[in-house]
Amino acid sequence: MYRFLLSRRWLITLLIALLLIPTTIKLGFWQLHRHEARVDRNELIGQALTAGPVPYDTLSAEPGFAVPKSLTWRSVTATGQYDATHEFVVRKRTDSSGDKIGYFVITPLVLADGKGSVLVNRGWVPSGASAADYPAVAAAPAGRVTVTGRLRADETAGNGLHDRSGMPDRQFNLISTEQQAKETGATLLGGYLELTATEPAPADQPELLPEPNHSDIGPHMAYAIQWWLFTALIPVGFAVMARREAKDRRKEAAEAEVTPEPVPA
Prior knowledge:
By secondary structure, this protein is α/β, with parallel strands linked by helices.
C-alpha cells in the first residue's frame, strides 16, 4: 500500500525532508552559539564594569595599541588637560534612548605624565541646523582634570560604520586614533575612553553614554529550540502525510470495489 512512496513526487518530497533535517540542526546550533557568545559577552562586560578603575596608560601604553576584548569596557582613569583645538564630532550617533540622531563629541586629553594623548568620548549632542554645521557643544573643562570612563577599542569600517572622505570640517564617521594621529600629528594611545565622570565636575557637558546592557541574553536560545523542534517535526510530518495518502488510496480502492459496473444498453 506504500508503494506510492517510490513515485517521483514522493521521492522528491523525501529528498527535501532529508536535506532540511541537517540544515535545521545546523541552524539550531548556530543560534546556540550566538546565545553562548551573548552570555560570555555579558559576563565580560559585568566583570569589567565592577572592577576598580586603573590608569589608562597601564592598559594602553603605546600608539596603535589594539584593545582586546578582554579589556574592553574596563574602567580606567586619566589625568591631564583637554586639547580643545583638536576636538571633533562623530556623525550618526544616537542618544541614550536610541531615538534621536546626533553626534558623539571626542576631545583629546593630553596626559599629565607626558606619554601622549587619549581620545575621550565626552558624550552625545543633538544635530545642528544642518548636517554641514558643527553642532553646539559644551566646552571641555579647562585646566587639569581627572576623567574616569570605559576603555573602548578603535572603531573600524563595517557594521554600518563607513570611513568616508569629504566630511565637513571636524566631522568624522569613526572614532579612530590612527585616523586622528594622521590628521593632527599628535601621539595618541590606542583605543579611547568613554567618559563616565570628571573631577572637578563641569557645569555643563554633553549627555553621557549609558552603561552597555549586559543583562539581556536575547532570544537566541529560544530560536535554537524552535529550530530543533522543527527538525523533529520534519520526519513526523512526512510520516503523517504518507499515512494520509495511504488512507486516501485505500478509501478510493474500497469505493471502486463497491461501485457497480454500468449495465450495457
